[in-house]
Design a protein that fits this description.
With about 775 residues, this protein is of the alpha/beta class. The protein has 4 domains: about 180 residues; about 110 residues, PAS domain (Beta-Lactamase, 2-Layer Sandwich); about 160 residues, 2-Layer Sandwich (Alpha-Beta Plaits), CATH 3.30.70; about 250 residues, EAL domain (TIM Barrel). About 55% of the residues lie in helices and about 15% in strands. An 8-stranded mixed β-barrel has the order 13-14-16-17-18-19-20-21, surrounded by 5 helices. A 5-stranded antiparallel β-sheet has the order 2-1-5-4-3, sandwiched between helices. A 5-stranded mixed β-sheet has the order 7-8-6-11-12, with helices on both faces. The radius of gyration is 57 Å and the shape is rod-shaped. The structure holds ligand C2E and magnesium ion (2 copies). Ligand C2E binds next to β14, α18 and β18.
Length: about 775
């Protein structure tokens, strides 16, 4: 309830009853006067009416202030009442003196009537008038009693005494009544004050925004502290002003329509996420309700608006959604959002709508950048990649980061299949251009796998799997391009998965075998060493190392397999003729093993083999990846005395830079050049060039895959120092080697005792 409303209603009720009683008194008195004398009713009527008017005016003034009468008003009322009393008394005494019997009767009635009137008036707010009436009645009754006791007999005594008694009791009642009423008023005022303070403290301290608008005029009546804080509108400025004075026309119209709805329905009207612009230009989001409050006459009086500032909540919710759906580094959609977009595109395509394509993208050489230049540069690179990818797509497509250096694009509404291939070409070309970061140009590249919806999958999951397969094929057959999914890839994938399982089982069951292929020194005509080659047979089928080694690398089994063959090879070599070397192939992946050097030392020590009888064959891949760290490892191995050969030279980059970077003991010319010698002059030139260059660098040269005497003669004449190939021997089991050694004039040594003896021990002591 509004301030002092209770007090105001109480006073209004009292005024109403006062009016009713005054009217009743007037009626009674006028009736009595009519009976007594013709002239006095006019005077009575006039004075009663005038007192009613004065009373009403003062009563209303009192109501307006919602308080008791002021001292000025009391004086005014008192003067008015005394004047009326004086007139009454004068008229009555006049009648007493000159009216004869009738006049005295009238005077007596007049005195009694005054007392009755006083009693009536006492119950209303006109106390002073009542008191004056009592005095007036008593005087009138006293005069005749003093003047003519004999004339009236007992009536002459009883009436004045009764009048005096009534006067006294009225006086007492008045004093008591006034004191009680004053107490009531003070209590009511205190309660109203307390109530007002309580209400305003609630209004002030609720954290929610609260405002009151006049339902009729649409102007603000008040706003609370929270409203002031949230909207930036000053409370002093708000009263009497409208929404339009503070908000944009649209926001004001929306607020006004909420008011109108609340007024029309009489029900609270809720609103969600209403945006307002505050006085300082900030945008806040509010949620709340408008409620209409009716007045006493049940007509809409106020609209109260209560609202909660949900800006921070909404921002937090948006942030949660962002985190859940976007990658925090690149701000691209993440896997979750990507999935939902892919599902949507797939559903459209599957339902016969526009076809879509899924492009699965993997960055080439990103890992090397991350490893060599650090994660900070890696992150910057990913952000730059994201920007380039965004620039390659249309607004309706989605590019997402799936994790690491893996990205995907959902391309919707394809017109023809080549749309996806065009996009893939664009992506590959954009990724192929150098990235300029931290003052250096970084070259990476990308491989892309494409699958079409609905053609390449029955579900979105299958589509993803097939795009991934196409990507895998792309990476296998040379990076920096794209591949479209083909059904046979599925078969290959399945076969590969089976091979993975077979490999794990073979390793667990120790089913790997090792064979040795002799290498012949063309000058001495003796076996200089043997290359250890791994063999695996699955269900009776021989699986080529070229097939299973890459899989072993991928599934992380290469280190264990590599260690196994290293130990076996060293142990066998210890039984071979003195000075005969064993060559062991090393995968680039093995160089990531921080224990590699320790493993080599341990294998040599256990076999009792001198380090210079072990030759590790690496390919260019080892120098390509993580160059610095791998070079350090290679130098460390060389320091230990281990020989290092560069295998399959001529098939990769064949960068001469590698030969400058590291002092290889041997270069192995790939068998593809040797097999071509009789047909290709280029191959002849290449073999000659490699052999010549190796000689000038003080390195040995091994021609691989020599199968014929002719090839032997040729490579020998070009300067190759060693040959390896079926002409000398097929890779053979360890127990077949003595015969091969014997054929070339070598003898097998006695098997040494295991674990650390002979030259290996010496070497270990120094290493
Ligand atoms: P590689 O190191 O170049 O091995 C030589 C390959 O040439 C062997 O194939 C060998 O059997 C084959 N070869 C030798 N002489 C001739 C010949 O006169 N004519 C023909 N056509 N081929 C000949 P293989 O054993 O199938 O090995 C293939 C590749 O697998 C190896 O090439 C090597 O890179 C890798 N590999 C084999 N064993 C291992 C291993 O234990 N560890 C690692 N990391 N890789 C291995
Ligand atoms: Mg090799
Ligand atoms: Mg080779």
């Amino acid at each position: 309830m509004r301030d002092g409303e209770a007090l105001r209603l109480a006073l209004a009720a009292r005024l109403e009853s006062a009016r009713a009683r005054a009217a009743a008194a007037a009626f009674l008195l006028v009736g009595a006067e009519f009976v007594s004398v013709g002239v006095t009713p006019v005077v009575w009527f006039g004075t009663v009416l005038a007192s009613f008017v004065v009373d009403r005016q003062i009563g209303q003034a009192c109501l307006r202030r919602r308080d008791t009468l002021s001292s000025g008003e009391v004086t005014l009322l008192g003067l008015w009442v005394l004047t009326c009393s004086a007139v009454y008394s004068a008229i009555t005494l006049y009648f007493w003196r000159y009216g004869g019997e009738f006049g005295r009767s009238f005077a007596l009635i007049q005195g009694c009537a005054s007392l009755v009137q006083a009693a009536i008036q006492l119950r209303s707010i006109r106390r002073l008038m009542a008191l004056s009436m009592v005095g007036h009645g008593w005087i009138i009754l006293l005069i005749p009693s003093a003047a003519g006791l004999a004339q009236f007999g007992p009536t002459g005594i009883i009436l004045p005494l009764a009048g005096f008694g009534v006067f006294l009791s009225l006086l007492l009642q008045l004093v008591r009544h006034s004191a009680a009423e004053q107490d009531d008023l003070i209590r009511a005022k205190r309660e109203a004050d307390l109530e007002r303070a309580f209400t305003s403290s609630i209004i002030e301290n609720i954290p929610n925004l609260l405002f009151v608008v006049n339902a009729r005029t649409g102007t603000f009546e008040l706003i609370n502290k929270a409203a002031e804080r949230i909207t930036g509108i000053r409370r002093d400025d708000v009263v009497g002003r409208t929404y339009e004075d503070f908000y944009t026309p649209e926001a004001a119209a929306r607020l006004r329509s909420l008011d109108a709805e609340a007024v029309a329905s009489g029900q609270p009207v809720t609103f969600e996420d209403e945006t307002i612009v505050t006085a300082d230009g900030a945008t806040r989001t509010l949620r709340g309700r408008h409620v209409c409050v009716a007045g006493e006459d049940a007509t809409p009086r106020y609209v109260i608006g209560v609202a909660e500032d949900v800006t921070d909540v909404r921002e937090a919710e948006a942030q949660v959604v962002r985190l859940a759906h976007y990658d925090s580094l690149t701000e691209l959609p993440n896997r979750v959002l990507f999935r939902s977009r892919l599902n949507a595109a797939f559903d459209v395509a599957a339902a016969g709508g526009e076809p879509a394509a899924l492009l699965w993208i993997d960055l080439d050489h990103f890992k090397e950048v991350n490893d060599t230049l650090g994660h900070l540069v890696g992150d910057q690179l990913l952000m730059e990649v994201a920007e380039r990818l965004k620039s390659a797509i249309r607004a309706q497509d989605t590019v997402a980061r799936l994790g690491g250096d893996e990205f995907a694009i959902v391309q919707t509404a394809l017109v023809c299949k080549s749309d996806a291939e065009d996009l893939a070409t664009r992506v590959v070309s954009l990724m192929g251009q150098p990235f300029h970061l931290s003052g250096r140009a970084i070259s990476i590249g990308a491989s892309v796998g494409i699958a079409y919806a609905p053609h390449d999958g029955l579900t979105a999951d299958e589509l993803m799997m097939h795009a991934d397969m196409a990507l895998y094929r792309c990476k296998q057959t040379g990076r920096g391009g794209y591949r479209v999914f083909e059904r046979e890839m599925n078969e290959r994938r399945r076969a590969r998965r089976t091979l993975e399982q077979d490999l794990r089982r073979a390793f667990a069951e120790d089913s790997f075998a090792i064979v040795f292929q002799p290498q012949l020194n063309v000058r001495s005509g003796r076996i200089s060493g043997c290359e250890a080659l791994m063999r695996l047979s699955i269900n009776g089928r021989a699986v080529s190392p070229a097939e299973f080694i890459p899989v072993a690398e991928e599934i992380g089994l290469i280190n264990q397999i590599g260690e196994w063959i290293l130990r076996q090879a060293c142990a066998e070599a210890a039984t071979w003729p003195a000075g005969t070397k064993v060559a062991v192939n090393m995968s680039p992946a093995q160089f990531k093993d921080p224990n590699l050097i320790r493993t080599v030392i341990s294998a040599l020590a256990h076999a009792g083999l001198s380090p210079d009888r072990l030759e590790l064959e690496i390919t260019e891949g080892t120098l390509l990846q993580n160059n610095e760290a791998n070079l350090t490892t290679l130098f460390r191995l060389r320091e230990l005395g281990v020989q290092v050969a560069l295998d399959d030279f001529g098939t990769g980059f064949s960068s001469l830079n590698y030969l400058r970077q590291f002092p290889f003991t041997k270069i192995k010319i790939d068998k593809s050049f040797v097999s071509d010698l009789s047909m290709s002059l280029e191959s002849v030139s290449i073999v000659k060039a490699i052999a010549g260059m190796a000689a000038s660098l003080g390195m040995q040269t091994t021609a691989e895959g020599v199968e014929t005497e002719r090839q032997l003669e040729m490579v020998k004449s070009y300067g190759c120092t060693e040959i390896q190939g079926f002409l000398i021997s097929q890779p053979c089991a360890a127990d077949e080697l003595p015969a091969v050694f014997a054929r070339f004039g070598g003898e097998m040594a006695a098997r040494p005792s295991p674990a650390g003896s002979g030259d290996a021990e010496l070497w270990l002591a120094t290493g």
